[in-house]
Amino acid sequence: MTKTLADLRSRRWFSASDMRAFAHRQRIQQMGLRREDVLQRPVVAIVNTWSDLSPCHAHLRERADSVKRGVLMAGGYPFELPAMSLGEVMVKPTTMLYRNFLAMEVEELLRSLPIDGVVLLAGCDKTTPGTVMGAISMGLPTIFCPAGPMLNDRHQGKTVGAGTHTRMFWDEHQAGRVSAAEMVHLESRMTRSPGTCNTMGTASTMTSMVEALGLALPGSTSIPAMDSAHTRMATTCGERIVQMIWDDLTPQRVLTRGAFMNAVAVQMALGGSTNAAVHIIAMAGRAGVSLTLDDLDAVARRVPVIANLFPAGDKLMEDFYYAGGLPALMNVIRAELSLVELTVTGRSVGDNIEGCNVLDAEVIRPLNNPVSTGSSLAVLRGNLAPNGAVMKASAASVKFFQHTGRALVFDSQPQMLAAMSDLNLDVDENTVLVLRNAGPVGAPGMPEWGGLPIPKKLLLQGVRDMVRLSDARMSGTHYGSCVLHISPESAVGGPLALVQTGDDIALDVQARTLNMLVSEAELARRRAVWVAPAQPFVRGYTKLYQQHVTQAHEGCDFDFLQGAAATPEPVIF
Ligand code: FES
């Protein structure tokens, strides 16, 4: 399948002998380019999620130059296109509210401009699924160039990183064991370079899964952002996309069900973020591939966690890179992979990982010495979550795997946060904390409020984990016995809306169940008087979001963006 110049999509803009094409060539030359730059070369978009307020992507402006070098060397012409930069920590109320916005922006950027192929520069939690979802829907040859993880830090002789340690140090500070002065020091040290979080949080989970899908170069997602290998990798992405355009190597040829199941197997072996459950289902939906929570649970039961990375383990992404990175990990679980799947290299998954050996078996463990004997992810169902809920079993306390406790229910995040510092709160370590109205519609945007803090009263007693339930998500860098993504969410009338403080909640991870021990008659009585919470958003993007977002088990995509049906090319006149 080889394309010629005459087949290029960009020719529709530039090669006709009419007034409109004349104007297009004129405007290209207005910017100092030569007419042959766009008439004799494929046009490559570099979609860049860099911004001055996005520390994870702070280096991507420079990396775009490396990509451009590769594109030019391979005979293409690059154009850098800025896209919404969703830096996880700064963007409020939550980047998840804008993932679909970014996906729409990427799709329509590519559709509306004379582009033949695309390099996606992204890496923070939502920029990866957002850009990839948009590129899948547009369907042009696409390669993902990951931002790469930040460097490790050292504190008092120990390796520390972002995310997981942030929560750990904050809890210790609340318990009086870390001083204010030490916290000020940590502020300036823990995130010591540009790049994404260096735990196996959502960012590294998603970039790794995109590599496993076949959309990124083998090994690219483990390279630290500040390593010179990262610059070289960006140049190679630029080079590679040009050949992919000639070969018409589109996402549709790469993204089979086998490719998605490979990505899920990698998620489980990594002990990856629960957020991936939402994003991978949304991505599959864009590719027209059926993927459900049950698929994830089935893989989780088979594939052990072998990456010894925070929060399930005790190493960081830099260590993972030195240990051989994702190709080495995929080689360990090769029996669980579909090795024939095509990738952006033009070769199969099996070819890409051949001979990629583990260089440090403490970081990437052998199958007979996993980090966790339980599964990475558990999908729970019951009268509290008829459509499913997820739990990161590998980061939870085993003592809570079978637990019944009294519910303490909060209707909002502010109400919950205010209660956490109350030293007289009616709570003990067996209590089940419940947060609702924190789902896709209710919050809105399904923020990462699901890692509910431990009440200060219990922190002072030494308690560091308890069972917590919500229709929210949780940061992939966090840990604890948190049941998340309860679907349907409370704001649309899911059973979570009916729980009351004092109800007994029964969790059984082994049996994959989550129930409130309340009679059907009582639940019917509560349902009859339930009133949906008022929503203040009467206009704008948030209104659109609430009207069209799907539930967590469906990927939280917009209903009108799902599916692989083709959108007509723009009319050029
Ligand atoms: Fe961007 Fe963690 S905040 S990757």
Give a verbal description of the structure.
There is one protein chain. With 573 residues, the protein is an alpha/beta fold. The chain has 3 domains: 41-151 and 193-353, 3-Layer(aba) Sandwich (Rossmann fold), CATH 3.40.50; 154-187, no CATH class; 378-534, Glucose Oxidase, domain 1 (3-Layer(bba) Sandwich). Helix content is 36%, strand content 13%. It has helices at residues 11-14, 19-30, 35-39, 60-73, 96-112, 127-138, 164-174, 180-189, 202-213, 228-246, 251-254, 257-270, 275-287, 293-302, 317-322, 325-332, 349-353, 413-420, 456-459, 520-529, 540-548, and strands at residues 43-48, 77-82, 117-122, 142-146, 153-155, 158-160, 378-382, 385-391, 402-410, 432-435, 468-470, 482-487, 504-508, 513-516. The strands form 3 sheets. It has an 8-stranded mixed sheet. A 4-stranded parallel sheet has the order 2-1-3-4, sandwiched between helices. Strands 5-6 form a two-stranded antiparallel sheet. Helix 4 links the parallel strand 1 (43-48) and strand 2. 55% of the residues are buried. The model has no long low-confidence stretch (mean pLDDT 96). Bound molecules: FE2/S2 (inorganic) cluster.
